[in-house]
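Exercise 7.
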Amino acid sequence: MKEKNKKYNVPQEILYSVCLSAWNVCSENIEKFAGFKGYYTKTFVAEAVESVQKARALPGICQNKAGRKEARIHLKGAARQVMDNWQVLKLYISKAFDKDIVNVMLEEAGASFYNKAALYNWSAVRSLAHTADTFIRNNMEALTANNNMPEGFQTKYAADGDKCIELSGEFGRINMDKEMATQLKIEANNAIYASAIEMLKDGQQIFRYDATVKKQFIFNYLVSVHRGEGSASLRGYITDELNLPVEGVTIISQNQKYTATTDSKGYYRISRIAQGLYTFHITRPGYQSIEQVITFNAGTASKGDFIMKKQMQMVA
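Solution. The predicted structure, written as tokens, is:
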């Protein structure tokens, strides 16, 4: 099952953030939504939010990849052991049989599977383990003659082969579980996306004459906000009356959401500022405070250089 079944074209976490944000705006305007369509109630919105949270809580692709990666590491180790054992068996076969039939015996022991097994073809690894074990059992007398192959080798080969086959089965189950979990995740995401899109379209209709509010019901706009694509920034230098940098100046918006402090060169920067009008307070002990109103447009970088005057000292 492939991710091509996705109806959404944004990262999962952006999808969840956008959906939760959209339903929050819907809740804030629930009376207008209810007047537009009767099924918009507080309960309806709460259930939509719960669906988003449940979709987010489902095991994600990264979680499934971690389990699959660990299982594959164990399986590769077991496969290497099977191949190492087969190379040892090859030596025993070369000594146990006449030269003119050694190649025939090696084929009977699974030589045709070895090259694919060395590339971690799991079917070939299983075949190599099973075929060689059968060969050893059927040729124990010839292989162990003249103290050639220890009798305990057959037990070891069988045990290592069984372990590899067991891990191969476990790896296959994990792959199937991964595909099922991934598809469940995508289906849940598709459902919350479709529900949010329907509500957003209704919001655009309800607020068709209010461009500012209507924008909050446009999916791509919400995506850009949550990605930080539509944010603005503020940077600048703060100096004193002698044009020397002032370190340790605090620049903070009136709502206390955006703040920065100047460095030793008097430089500061504030990123990810939402579009709008803000009042900033620029302060530092020993200097007169500055109050500045700045308007930010989405995706723009504003510059704010300020000159701070020292406070007059009272003479005793």
